[in-house]
Request: fold
Amino acid sequence: MNESGDMNEFLETCCKILIRCFVIEMVFLLFWFCVFLIGGDFAFGIHSKMFDIDKHDFDLMTYYGMAFVKTSAFLLFLFPYISIRLVLRKRKNRGRT
Reply:
């Protein structure tokens, strides 16, 4: 296999890893949301004893945490995945001409 083929294979592997990481991150976020929805009062009870926070602060921290995880997933996994896919498409089209 030539050097270009090795690079394409490497980029394909990176794409597979990135999209899997993104999916895992979204599943984690969905799980976190469901736990917050179903057992939010239980989680608040545990955390309020440990950290002396009120319900509003707990909800705010949970919301900001979810927003941070979601933003991180898009910035660290989805956008690089899309960028690599665009590069691979360009390389593939250049190889046809």
In short: The chain is about 95% helix and 0% strand. Residues 3-96 form one domain.
